[in-house]
Specification:
By secondary structure, this protein is of the alpha/beta class. It is 46% helix and 18% strand. It has four domains: 43 residues; 103 residues, OB fold (Dihydrolipoamide Acetyltransferase, E2P) (Beta Barrel), CATH 2.40.50; 252 residues, no CATH class; 262 residues, Metallo-beta-lactamase, Chain A. It starts with a helix and ends in a 12-residue tail after the last strand.
């Protein structure tokens, strides 16, 4: 919006009526397009948190859209009835069905029955909003497929034939690349069909940590290199330029589909296509002109393009390369770093100080080593597999080297800066390059100081918080004191790992905490946990522990007395980079929080769950884990005068906890419920809700509010904030 206002003001100052007229017409056309698109999506979108609706419908499926992970599959399909795009998710039931989906050759029509619901927005603060991402792509609905009734080849109209042919070729290319060995599989899938290998999170850790993913796919650099290589080959085949340029021009839309149709690929294809078309047109288009036209086309197809990390890096860095072309190598690298840094910090919250050096080394290697090794290894696999394995080893060595460099000291967990500060940084960087070279170092120092100030604001905040993460059917609670003096976590969340059928490949192990609680901690610049309390051994409370031990420094793990001797959960400590201190606690233990339960060592089940208490921001908080009513009675027996302001209900609001006498004794003002949406246990139980209602206790649940947090300053009462409902008084939000 800010950039649009700047452009409009500059055009108005030109004092040219023809230009004004063109500007007005463009704004009307573009605005009408966006308004109609938004109206159409709003009509299709179901109410937020509405129960899933059973539906039976026919959808059109492209063969390259199907992604299979273990026994699960998902894809984006198109409704036959109204051309609406929807996300399908389903579970494979047999090896035969797996084989069928792995060998879909052409567009098909599926008749399905399933549960239709609205795509859920991000339910934790600073979490990636997948619903917003898909809305930009005209998708607002998700269908959980319960029955795949029938499949048949899709009848197509003449205008669908071109796209269907390219989608079929892309499906063949994806299947071919999936058979490639080692790191070659990851690179070939990413650079050729623009697909994501299941192993990419492991293989590309070094590249991601060093901020080099823009070289891999999202910038479209590989597209430009491939097109340049194709042109070089056609020239040396001595074909007439006027013929092959037309062929190349009309092939670009198909190549866009073949390469994955990402924003970076779109930009690269449009720019190259406009350059080729410009040779056949009476008007001249500069590189900057082609970039501008590509941006307009990209925004037409995806209005949220510049709000996404991939779009920002692709269009932003390509613009920087155009405008900084006359700069020296050193200043060009400085410009690319400072122009890409605001997007990286907003998207992944960290930056490696060796990124500049890594760019200096890797960028020259990309066109002469990485891309050729990928192409040679891919092309030679069918007839010379030894050469293909050699290319895979070269890429594997390259990956290992990047991971080694990424582990060197220098990674800065910055946190997420304020959005308006990032705009100032971008504007300040362009202002820097408008100055004479001799005067830039002073402005560069001021820019660096602004980053240091923002770093201090993020890492030493004036406020503290008690935050209940939305981790689905589980528990995870953050207690962060002002200035980050002490960071405490109660439970990690987790989920039961469903066993895979023998005929299904085992998918990579992933942890929900990486997208929720750990992601939030990193966005606040927090790289450690001082005290991590594990209330008991259930997977929905401690299952994501390995992710915390891998990504953060955990100084101390506190467990209920007796749990330290249980071997079942000890394997979760194996991924810790440093030795972890495990301390058993019970009533009377002198630790950061007041321990209310257990009274003696025993099994770390629900009956032996930790119950904890603490005061923050003039409110007293009680955290009950999964403790049952018998444990509640023990607490009341030993502490008959016990009171609290905020009660986190035991066992996700189950009727096995939260006895009426317990609530009457504590007299809480607010109850917090952490439970999964539409969970199979029926949490929270109606009996528990009735107990709260009779005691006139307000309640908030992560099911309907998402993440719930209480933000306070030292010695002052704070405010309640929820992710799915704007901030306000907790009782008023009921």
């Amino acid at each position: 919006m800010i950039l649009l206002l700047v452009v409009i003001s500059r055009i108005i100052r030109l004092d040219n009526r023809v230009t004004w007229g063109l500007l007005f017409m463009s704004l009307v056309i573009f605005g009408s397009h966006l308004w109609l698109q938004e109206q159409r999506l709003s009509q299709r979108q179901l109410p937020l948190l509405a129960p899933a609706q059973t539906t039976e419908l026919a959808v059109r499926v492209q063969p390259d859209a199907i992604t299979i992970r273990g026994s699960l599959y998902y894809l984006v399909a198109t409704k036959i009835s109204n051309e609406e795009r929807v996300i399908l998710r389903g579970r494979l039931t047999s090896a035969a069905q797996l084989q069928d989906l792995q060998h879909v050759q052409r567009a098909e029509v599926w008749q399905i029955t399933g549960q239709q619901q609205r795509l859920l927005p991000a339910t934790n603060f600073n979490q990636f909003d997948s619903a917003n991402y898909w809305r930009h792509r005209q998708v607002v609905t998700e269908i959980m497929v319960t029955t795949l009734t029938s499949r048949k080849p899709a009848l197509r109209h003449w205008w669908q034939g071109f796209g269907d042919w390219w989608h079929a070729r892309r499906a063949q290319l994806i299947r071919y690349c999936e058979r490639l060995p080692g790191a070659l599989k990851v690179y070939a899938l990413g650079l050729l069909p623009g697909a994501k290998a299941a192993e990419s999170m492991v293989e590309l850790q070094g590249m991601q940590r060093l901020g080099l993913l823009h070289l891999f796919a999202i910038s479209g650099l590989h597209v430009a290199l491939l097109l340049t290589a194709a042109e070089w080959l056609l020239v040396h085949l001595r074909l007439q330029r006027e013929h092959w340029e037309w062929v190349l021009l009309f092939s670009l839309p198909g190549y866009w589909i073949l390469a994955g149709a990402s924003s970076g690929v779109l930009r690269a294809c449009l720019m190259r296509g406009l350059q080729l078309a410009g040779k056949r047109c009476p008007f001249y288009l500069s590189t900057l002109d082609t970039w501008a036209v590509a941006l307009v086309a990209g925004l037409w197809l995806n209005p949220g393009l510049l709000f996404e990390l991939g779009g920002q890096l692709s269009y932003g860095l390509s613009l920087a390369l155009i405008l900084l072309q006359s700069e020296t190598w050193w200043w060009r690298q400085v410009g690319l770093t400072f122009l890409g840094l605001p997007s990286l910090l907003t998207g992944i919250f960290q930056w490696h100080s060796l990124t500049l050096l890594a760019n200096w080394i890797v960028v020259p290697l990309f066109p002469v080593v990485i891309l050729p090794a990928t192409l040679i290894g891919t092309l030679s696999y069918a007839w010379l597999p030894a050469l293909s394995r050699g290319c895979a080893q070269v890429l594997g060595v390259f990956d290992t080297g990047l991971q080694w460099v990424a582990q060197l000291p220098g990674n800065v967990l910055f946190g997420r800066p304020l959005w308006w500060v990032t705009w100032i940084w971008v504007a300040g960087t362009w202002w820097l390059f408008s100055r004479p070279v001799g005067k830039r170092r002073r402005w560069l120092s001021l820019l660096a100081v602004s980053y240091a100030v923002m770093y201090g604001v993020i890492h030493y905040p004036l406020t503290g918080e008690v935050a209940y993460f939305d981790v689905g059917q589980g528990d995870s609670i953050l207690i962060r004191e002002p200035f980050n003096r002490h960071v405490t976590l109660i439970d990690t969340g987790g989920r039961l790992a469903l066993p895979q059928p023998e005929w299904a490949a085992t998918p990579p192990v992933t942890y929900n905490a990486e997208r929720t609680s750990i992601n939030y901690l990193k966005s606040r610049g927090i790289d450690h946990v001082d005290d991590l309390y594990l209330t008991h051994h259930d997977a929905d409370h401690i299952g994501d522990l390995p992710a915390f031990l891998k990504d953060l420094q955990v100084k101390r793990v506190l467990v209920p007395a007796g749990m330290e001797q249980e071997p079942g959960w000890a394997r979760l400590l194996a991924n810790s980079a440093t030795p972890v201190s495990v301390q058993p606690i019970q009533v009377g233990s002198l630790v950061g929080l007041h321990v209310l339960h257990p009274f003696e060592a025993g099994p770390a089940d629900n009956a032996g769950s930790l119950a904890l208490q603490g005061t923050f921001g003039r409110l007293n908080f009680m955290f009950m884990g999964d403790l049952d009513q018998a444990g509640e009675r023990k607490i009341l027996t030993t502490a008959p005068q016990l009171r609290t302001d905020v009660l986190k209900l035991g066992h996700h609001g189950s009727k096995t906890a939260t006895a009426p006498a317990f609530v009457a004794q504590l007299q809480p003002r607010l109850a917090i419920i952490s439970a999964g949406r539409q969970n199979r246990y029926g949490h929270p139980n109606p009996e528990t809700l009735a107990t709260l209602h009779r005691a006139t206790v307000a309640a908030m649940s992560t099911q309907t509010r998402g993440m719930i947090r209480y933000v306070y300053t030292d010695n002052r009462q704070g405010t309640w904030q929820t992710k799915l409902i704007s901030k306000g008084n907790a009782r008023d939000n009921q």
